[in-house]
């Protein structure tokens, strides 16, 4: 009715933009789309000349459920689309051009080293690029001194603040992780496995349209950017972290001088996994990736507030790589510990030793990239206790690969 009156009285053609249209659900969404459909049929008057529906998803992917929870798609209310356009990601040159507008206005400069980092963190996703810039130029008090250049360390801090604050955009994407078709695509990536047979091409296209993944042809995929790569597992492990609060004091594995006793921490996880994995695996939202998520939750609980966990995983990698950086003070100055942890799961038709040998090579390669003081390989054997007992599964070995010492933790 409002659009009808507006169109009838406006002396000029109306172009209507409805932002976040996909935030509407159920009968409300059907009502709005139905009204737009009726207006289309009654055009050119009384109806807006052109209507743009802006949202995270294409209109074909809107989901309406019945009282029984069954999904309804299609129908005349949805048959209103002329064309779908997707706002593409920024290139590094475009990010530079955008950020230099701030420099032109305030004379505050960005260090040249930040641009590749911004692209790695955001993948050029427009909202993330702008949110990171706002954090750097508006929210961070120290950088309000425009004579101070914006450096790589500042970008790292802005990323952490953005992730901790979890703005609406990030929360909306996180909410999508609960959808079965998103889980069918994301879970294999988190565990470094292969595409699930239950994940259809439509599922993959949907998750790609959400901006959560980037497909790597012919058959691979990765999480779209480093910020999403941290947000996704942190969200999926938040319940685990809360439960760990009572079981694992945050300082349980800290040495008297403030450093982290990483070997003791992994030994603690090994024992915890032995005692609790069966229950936790069933409780996990993404059961397929439960071991990887459980390890990350354990690390996050201990490292949180004193360090960072950088994650690498992609379809077909066959493992999840974790790079832990822990900060402490020596004589009033910040020092850093660096650890590499790689997790592999023993797959069917593959022996434990073959899995370890492959993992050692992969861990050594990742360690060569990160230069840690310790490198660890965690190997999980999911076979039932009737096949291999826990006494057989649980072990610690000191091995070497490419002249690098690597501790292997079996569980």
Please give a structural write-up.
It contains 15 helices and 12 strands. The chain has helices spanning 2-9, 26-41, 92-106, 114-122, 126-139, 152-165, 168-176, 180-190, 201-209, 226-236, 238-247, 262-283, 290-303, 352-370, 390-393, and strands spanning 15-18, 50-53, 64-65, 71-72, 213-216, 220-223, 307-312, 320-330, 333-345, 374-380, 395-401, 404-410. The chain has a 6-stranded mixed sheet, sandwiched between helices. The chain has a two-stranded parallel sheet with strand order 1-2. α4 packs across α5, α5 packs across α6 and α11 (238-247) packs across α13 (290-303). The longest helix is centred in the middle third of the chain and has 22 residues, at 262-283.
Summary keywords:
alpha/beta; 15 helices; two-stranded parallel ribbon
Describe the secondary-structure layout.
Blueprint: H1 2-9, E1 15-18, H2 26-41, E2 50-53, E3 64-65, E4 71-72, H3 92-106, H4 114-122, H5 126-139, H6 152-165, H7 168-176, H8 180-190, H9 201-209, E5 213-216, E6 220-223, H10 226-236, H11 238-247, H12 262-283, H13 290-303, E7 307-312, E8 320-330, E9 333-345, H14 352-370, E10 374-380, H15 390-393, E11 395-401, E12 404-410
Parallel strand pairs: 1-2, 9-10, 10-12
Antiparallel strand pairs: 3-4, 5-6, 7-8, 8-9, 11-12
Describe this structure in a few short sentences.
The protein is α/β, with parallel strands linked by helices.
């Amino acid at each position: 009715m409002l659009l009808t009156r507006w169109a009838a009285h406006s002396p000029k053609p109306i172009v209507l933009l409805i932002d976040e249209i996909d935030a509407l659900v159920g009968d409300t969404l059907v009502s709005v789309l139905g009204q737009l459909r009726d207006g289309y049929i009654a055009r050119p008057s009384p109806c807006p000349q052109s209507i743009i529906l802006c949202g995270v998803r294409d209109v074909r992917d809107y989901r309406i459920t019945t009282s029984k929870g069954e999904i309804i798609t299609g129908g005349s209310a949805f048959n209103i689309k002329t064309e779908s356009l997707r706002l593409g990601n920024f290139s590094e040159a475009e990010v530079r051009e955008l950020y230099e507008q701030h420099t032109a206005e305030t004379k505050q400069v960005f260090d040249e080293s930040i641009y590749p980092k911004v692209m790695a963190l955001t993948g050029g996703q427009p909202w993330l690029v702008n949110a990171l810039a706002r954090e750097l130029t508006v929210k961070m008090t120290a950088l309000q001194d425009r004579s101070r250049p914006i450096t790589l360390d500042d970008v790292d801090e802005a990323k952490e603040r953005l992730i901790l604050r979890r703005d609406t955009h990030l929360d909306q994407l996180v909410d999508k992780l609960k959808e079965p078709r998103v889980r069918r695509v994301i879970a294999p990536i988190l565990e470094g496995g292969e595409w699930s047979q239950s994940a259809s091409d439509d599922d993959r296209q949907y998750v790609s349209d959400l901006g959560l993944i980037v497909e790597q042809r012919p058959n691979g995929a990765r999480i779209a950017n480093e910020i999403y790569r941290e947000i996704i597992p942190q969200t999926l492990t938040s319940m685990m972290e809360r439960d760990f609060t009572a079981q694992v004091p945050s300082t349980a594995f800290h040495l008297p001088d403030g450093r982290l006793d990483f070997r003791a921490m992994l030994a603690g996880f090994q024992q915890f996994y032995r005692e609790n994995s069966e229950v936790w695996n069933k409780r996990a939202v993404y059961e397929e990736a439960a071991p990887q998520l459980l390890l990350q939750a354990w690390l996050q609980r201990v490292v949180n507030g004193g360090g960072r966990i950088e994650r690498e995983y992609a379809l077909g990698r066959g493992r999840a790589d974790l790079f832990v950086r822990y900060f402490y003070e020596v004589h009033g100055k910040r020092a850093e510990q660096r650890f590499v942890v790689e997790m592999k799961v023993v797959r069917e038709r593959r022996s434990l030793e073959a899995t370890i040998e492959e993992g050692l090579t992969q861990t050594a390669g990742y360690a060569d990239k990160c230069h840690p003081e310790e490198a660890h390989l965690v190997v999980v054997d999911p076979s039932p206790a009737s096949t291999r007992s826990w006494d057989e599964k649980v072990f610690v070995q000191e091995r070497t690969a490419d002249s690098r010492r690597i501790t292997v933790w079996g569980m």
